[in-house]
Every structure is written in structure tokens, then in C-alpha cells.
Amino acid sequence: VSGPDYHLEVYRKAKAGHRPSLTRLISTLEAGRPGLSGVLGAIHADAGRAHLVGLTGAPGSGKSSLVAALARQLRKRGRTVAIVAVDPSSALTGGALLGDRIRMDEHTLDQGVLVRSMSSRGSLGGLARATTDVVAVLDAAGWDYVFIETVGVGQAEVDIMRLADTVAVVSVPGLGDDIQAIKAGLLEIADIHVVNKSDLPGAQRTASELLGMLMMANAREGAWPVPVLSTDALAPGGIAELVDAFDDHRRWQEASGEGLARRRRRAAERIRVLARDRLMERLQDPSTSAAFDGLVDRVVDRSMSPHDAVDALFEAFTRPESLAGRK
Ligand SMILES: Nc1nc2c(ncn2[C@@H]2O[C@H](COP(=O)(O)OP(=O)(O)OP(=O)(O)O)[C@@H](O)[C@H]2O)c(=O)[nH]1
Ligand SMILES: [Mg+2]
User: Which residue in 1, 82, 226, 271 is deepest, having the highest Cβ count within 10 Å?
Assistant: First the structure.
């Protein structure tokens, strides 16, 4: 059995709390099979209630340990927690976040916690798309918090972090890599800075350096003052304060209008990406490719400019008979 009705039925069960249906739907969405627009529409209509929290930072900074501690704290507060660990580098290494699975074991028997690892397998663009859909279904299915953990500090991580309502950038005591990470663009996307491993020497100094870098931005009228929080994910320490900061940030966003602005940016970007994907699919479609080759011929023999060829293509998308006539 397959098809749109089948996916909607799986989604209905997932929303009702049936875990196997949820994990099956996540796998389907991750694979991005055709025929999902119906269920994606239903998911979109239901989503928008969860607090999406992104955690990123240098490899080994303690993101997974932090997420585990955060999940424990949130469970104490009666909230449900879904964790999506995304590894963009797995396209190169072929590895998955095995360690994350092991460290999360303590939570596997808890119905209020769900852990999912995602690797890119294919393209990085595909990973961002898959992550967007998986996070949306978790939100729609009623999870209170959805954590998105990414390893590393590249553009792929920044793109994935744009999904989140609140982005926490995790640093560790001692400089070097962290400053590199911040230079790579993480400073602009951080809503909260976390200095994890605060049990190690130099934590105070790292926190001061971060605060120094934030001083100008934090002094701006009406800006969210990005806090720098110290945590020890293992002891644990500072975890309740971090959860409070997530909630403060969300409240501030809703009060200031920044939340709506962010949702608008996210929606606009999503439409753009999907439009671009759809366009590329159309260009690769066999029904278009013959006509496309015809346009290539004309650009090569200079009877048509590339710009006019694009005009012809766009016309063909709305009036398919137009290209045939032009050949
Ligand atoms: N001393 C100390 N060690 C920590 C703390 N948090 C995590 N660690 C240790 O740091 C190591 C890396 O922790 P992870 O939670 O796997 O870090 P990560 O950022 O998820 O790592 P990747 O996903 O591989 O990038 C582990 O050995 C942890 O036990 C902390 O607060 N203090
Ligand atoms: Mg990790």
C-alpha cells in the first residue's frame, strides 16, 4: 500500500501518538519520495507550535551531551523533546552520529523523548530539505521542543540553523577554533551563546571574550541582548538557566515582532528553494529536454541569445505549445 491516502493515514496515527507511524513517516519524508504534497500540506497546517531550537558549534564541544541534559531538564518540567542530529559531513565520511545514539540511550525508553539522526547520503541541499520536512512533522505531531543539532561550522550548518526559532552556538574554554567558528558566520546567527565544559579552566575568560564581541550588537536599541551562558553538560550545571533563556528568547520574539519577521523570512526562503527545485526538475524533464537542446543549438549558432532562450523557456512553462512553435 502506498499513495497519498496511505501517508495521511500514517500521519493521523503519528499525531495520535503512535510512535512507529511517526518514525515511518519521518523515514518517508527523509527519502523525499514523490506523492507527499498532500501529507506535507496537512503537516504545514498543523505545525507552528513547537519551539525549534538549533544547537551548533565546533565538533566535540558537547552539543549532544548538552541536548541530553536539556532533554532531562525539560522532561522534569513536563515537556516533550524531539532531537534531530544532523551531520552534513557524513556525505564525505559516510559516517552517522553513532555516538549520539549511544549517549541518548538513557532516553530511549521515555515516550516523551525522540532521537533521530540524519546524514546527508546525497547532496547537502537534499539534507536541508529533508531536515525541514522532518522538523515540521515533529512540530505538527505535537512535540513541545524540537532540538536540531548540527556538527561543524560551515555554510550547510548555517542553512540548517535558519530553521530554528532560537539558535544556540556552543563554544568551549580556550580560543582558536571557537573564534574561527564565529568568524565563519555563526556570530550573526547566535541568539544565545553557550560556553560548555565550564568545569574546565578558562571558561570565564571565553565567556568574557564572547561578551566583548557582542557588546556593540547587544547595545543596539530594541535588539535582543544575546546572553552568554556557562554550562557543564556532565555535572550538570547551568542547564535550567539555559532552558529559561530559550523561553525568554521566544517570549521576546513574540513581543517584539521579531518572531513573525523570522517566520516570514523562513517562509520566503522555503518558497524560493522549492521554486528553484521545481524549475530544475522541469529543465531535466524529458519533455523539456528536446526543446532545451533546440535552444542550446540556437545559442551556439548565435541565432538566439541565452537571455532570449530563458524567456522562451519560461514562456514554455506556462504555454507548453510555444516552444514547439519556436523550434
Ligand atoms: N569536562 C566536560 N566534558 C564534557 C562536557 N560536555 C561534554 N563533554 C565531553 O566532551 C566530549 C564530546 O561531547 P559530545 O556531547 O559528543 O560533543 P558534540 O559536540 O556532540 O560532538 P560532535 O557531535 O562529535 O561534534 C565527550 O567526551 C563528553 O563527555 C562538559 O560540560 N564538561
Ligand atoms: Mg554530537
Answer: 82
Q: How far apart are CA 146 and CA 55, in angstroms?
A: 11
At 226, list the grid cell. Answer: 544575546
Phi, psi of 256 (to 5 degrees): -90, -15
Residue type (1 letter), 78: G
- Say how far apart CA 27 and CA 9 lie, in whole Å: 15
* pTM for this entry: 0.88
Give residue 148 CA to ligand 1 midpoint distance, Å.
16
- Nearest-angstrom CA–CA distance, 69 and 75: 10
Digit-coded pLDDT (tens) for 197-237: 999 999 999 999 889 889 988 999 999 999 999 999 999 99
d(CA 294, CA 131): 38
Number of H helices, E strands in the chain: 16, 7
Per the CB < 8 A criterion, the answer to whether 272 and 162 are in contact is: no
State the Cα–Cα distance between residues 138 and 171, nearest whole angstrom.
Answer: 27
178 confidence band (pLDDT: 50, 70, 90): low
Ligand 2 centroid distance, CA of 120 (Å): 15
CA distance 190 to 170: 9
**pLDDT of the residue at 106:** 58
Atom of ligand 1 at shortest range from CA of 152:
25
CA–CA gap between residue 109 and residue 292 (Å, rounded): 55
Task: Supply the pLDDT for residue 267.
Answer: 95
Average pLDDT, whole number, for the chain? 86
Residue bearing the bigger pLDDT, 313 or 264: 264
Residue 11: closest CA among 134, 194, 116, 150: 134
